[in-house]
């Protein structure tokens, strides 16, 4: 019969390898028999990480040993690959060095407004590859302007390269290697939920990743999680099954002890990368007077979550020279209407201080805002995006006064 038989189940014989148990080996044979017609006649390209037994094992474990459910999900994955031309994308991946997870299409462009290190090193003790991204530093306005097809090319290339890497590492290690992800939410706020396009992309890619690459994630660490994160998480929680949710670990903002407990599990390369991406964030809130550089063509946003009614935020700042754009907006989101499939969430904003240019001659600019209802976010913005040549500097203090 003309069928694909790569990475045969015999290579996972439990007498020789801990990859699969005897029961799992038998079930993988059942899956192959059920998928015989799908694999025959050259319908599927014979990529090891797609049709090999290790990929079948991931589906089997992802569906808790249920052969029928695993086969149905695998067929859904094959249909998804066909509709998204995944096999045709392979030549371009090979041209960019298929083993280099950091060589992704448009990575330099996307990392400007979505800081991410696809491969940052390894976690201990099993040598799992680690990805770092900074959800709190995402530029929502830039996401709205970036072509969706370019996001798709970037994200699909990441998923495919990671799948290839995990497959190779699993065969070399003799056990099912999974990835580790560190997602840093420092700076995250309700304003990140103000873009319907951004929410739609997030939900789409979370869903497609979980459905088509099951058991690829070992642990996902959410660090520096602010209070506003609970609103955002409602958007994706319906897409995540309980087995996957058990892999999540949450470390709240300011819980340095928990973060330090996590970091020893990472190698030195991961720690260096985490330091690099942290330096991209600007820490202003509740700090002594800060001198904040704002490079040409960029802006600095400071989100302040106002959880309780009566919380007040005050600001006092000046621009050192020339001028700078300044604005303050308040965001409210109706989290009760979040829907895991449609992503419906009503988020709106109103100006507290409308955008305007402020010159150095105007001296100190002061102001404050008091939240009447709570559950709001104040977004303070210094905007130098209009300047193509000159960088600016602001000297500022932003303080949050919690309600009694």
TrEMBL record:
Top-level division of the source organism's lineage? Eukaryota
Tell me which residues make up the CRAL-TRIO domain.
Answer: 107-273
Note the InterPro entries from the entry: CRAL-TRIO_dom, CRAL-TRIO_dom_sf, CRAL/TRIO_N_dom_sf, GOLD_dom, GOLD_dom_sf, SEC14/CRAL-TRIO_domain
Q: Quote the Pfam families the UniProt record gives.
A: CRAL_TRIO
Domain GOLD: residue ranges: 275-400
Q: Which Gene3D superfamilies match?
A: CRAL-TRIO lipid binding domain (3.40.525.10), GOLD domain (2.60.120.680)
Under PROSITE patterns, the record lists: CRAL_TRIO, GOLD
Can you quote a single GO CC term? cytoplasm
Which protein are we looking at? Answer: CRAL-TRIO domain-containing protein
Which species expresses this protein natively? Octactis speculum
